[in-house]
Design a protein that fits this description.
The chain has helices at residues 6-32, 39-46, 50-56, 60-81, 88-98, 109-119, 123-150, 157-180, 186-200. With 207 residues, the chain is mainly alpha-helical. 74% of the residues lie in helices and 0% in strands. The chain has two domains: 1-57, Arc Repressor Mutant, subunit A (Orthogonal Bundle); 62-201, Tetracycline Repressor, domain 2, CATH 1.10.357. It has nine helices and no strands. This is TetR family transcriptional regulator. GO terms for molecular function: DNA-binding transcription factor activity; transcription cis-regulatory region binding.
Length: 207
C-alpha cells in the first residue's frame, strides 16, 4: 500500500472515522439500548459531529447493519482460526472467553441481545441477522466436517446441520447467561462447557 498516495490516506482516514463511529455506537447501544441511544449520544461518545456520522450512515439502522457486518467478519475469522486446532481442548477455552473480551471488534453479549430484540421489531435488521447466521452456519458446518474427517467419520449433511445448530444455540445461550450472571467464575464456565462440547465434537467413524 502506498501511504504517500493522497487518495490512499483519505481512504484510511475515512475508514478510521467510520470505525470510530461504530465503536461509539456499540458502546451507546450497550449502555442505553438501541431506541434510547441517539445520534447525538453516538457523536458525543465518538467525539465527532452528528453531521460527520450522517456522512457515513443514513440513520441508526444503517449503523446497526454495519455493526452486524463487522461482527460477521469477526465470527468468520474466529471460525477460520479454529482450523489450526480441531479438538475440544482448543474450542472449550475459546468459547469460555467468547463473550468476555473487551476489544471493539469482539462479540458483546449485551449488544447481541439488544440486536436480537430489535430484530423482532425491525424486518431489515432481522433479515441482516438471518443472513449473517446463514453465512456463519455454513462456515461452522465446514469446520465440523473437517473435525469429523480427522476422526475418520463421514457424517451426513443433516447430522452436521443438527450439531451446528446445537453449538450455535450453546453460544447464544452463553450470551444470555453471562448477561444475567456476569460474576460467573470463569473456571466454572469452562468446566460446564467441558461437559458438553466434547460430545458435540465426537464422531463415530461408522457414521
Amino acid at each position: 500500500m502506498n501511504t504517500n498516495d493522497p487518495g490512499c490516506r483519505a481512504r484510511e482516514r475515512a475508514e478510521a472515522q467510520r470505525d470510530r463511529i461504530l465503536d461509539a455506537a456499540r458502546q451507546c447501544f450497550t449502555e442505553h439500548g438501541f431506541h434510547a441511544a441517539t445520534i447525538a449520544n453516538i457523536a458525543e461518545t465518538a467525539q465527532v459531529s452528528a453531521g460527520l456520522i450522517y456522512r457515513y450512515f443514513e440513520n441508526k439502522n444503517a449503523i446497526v447493519l454495519a455493526i452486524i457486518d463487522r461482527q460477521l467478519r469477526q465470527a468468520r475469522r474466529d471460525i477460520a482460526a479454529l482450523q489450526t486446532g480441531m479438538d475440544a481442548g482448543d474450542l472449550v477455552p475459546r468459547l469460555a472467553r467468547l463473550w468476555q473480551k473487551n476489544e471493539p471488534g469482539d462479540l458483546d453479549p449485551v449488544l447481541f441481545l439488544e440486536m436480537s430484540a430489535e430484530a423482532s421489531r425491525n424486518t431489515e435488521i432481522a433479515e441482516a441477522l438471518r443472513q449473517a447466521d446463514r453465512i456463519s452456519a455454513d462456515d461452522f458446518r465446514g469446520w465440523l466436517e473437517g473435525v469429523a474427517h480427522s476422526q475418520g467419520a463421514r457424517p451426513s449433511p443433516a447430522e452436521l446441520r443438527v450439531r451446528g445448530i446445537a453449538m450455535r444455540s450453546l453460544i447464544a445461550g452463553l450470551a444470555v447467561y453471562i448477561v444475567r450472571d456476569p460474576g460467573t467464575d470463569p473456571d466454572d464456565l469452562r468446566a460446564a462447557l467441558e461437559k458438553v462440547v466434547p460430545a458435540l465434537l465426537r464422531f463415530d467413524p461408522a457414521e
